[in-house]
Amino acid sequence: MAAAAPSNSASGRDGSGSERQTVRASIRGVVQGVFYRAWTKETADSLGLDGWVRNLPDGSVEAVFSGPSSSVDQMLTLSKRGPKSARVEQVDVEPYKDDVGKGFEVKRGKY
After folding, report:
1. Distances (CA, A) of 82 to 10, 11, 21, 46, 93
2. Helices (DSSP H) in the chain: which residue ranges?
3. Sheet holding 50-55, edge to edge
4. What are the catalytic residues (predicted)?
5. Most buried in the list 14, 35, 58, 79, measured by CB within 10 Å?
6. What phi and psi, each to the nearest 5 degrees, are found at residue 79?
7. Does domain 21-102 have CATH number 3.30.70.100?
8. Are 63 and 106 in contact (CB under 8 A)?
9. CA–CA separation, 11 vs 93, rounded Å?
């Protein structure tokens, strides 16, 4: 799937009246062991996003971002670079329909 963000993949508006979207991103490249998850949480928190991030066994990182469309789009753009030590090669994005709850978390353990 293309790296471009889909528009309004989740229905609804946030408290400010802005359209919300929720997407799942698959981030590939050198993205494990380089603080990518910690960077993602810090960045998502700064943008006021809900969701989560986790490492996958294939060496990629999976993340779900939910919030105002403009903030989700900004997070996706930033995810293409990641922290300084990461080398992102590809970011695939698709709509995500499940509830992500409130806040942003780093998931650990079972995939």
Report:
1. 24, 28, 21, 14, 15
2. 36-46, 69-79
3. 87-95, 20-30, 61-68, 50-55, 104-106
4. 37, 55
5. 79
6. -65, -25
7. yes
8. no
9. 17
* Of the candidates 81, 91, 71, the residue with the CA atom closest to the CA atom of residue 26: 91
- pTM of structure: 0.84
Please give the structure tokens belonging to residue 65.
Answer: 């971002």
List the chain domain ranges: 21-102
pLDDT tens sequence across 36-87: 999 999 999 999 999 999 999 999 999 999 999 999 999 999 999 999 999 9
What's the rounded Cα separation, in Å, for the pair 21 and 6?
A: 8
For residues 111 and 108, give the distance between their C-alpha atoms in angstroms, rounded to a whole number. Answer: 8
Q: Output the CA torsion sign for 92, 96, 102, 106.
A: negative
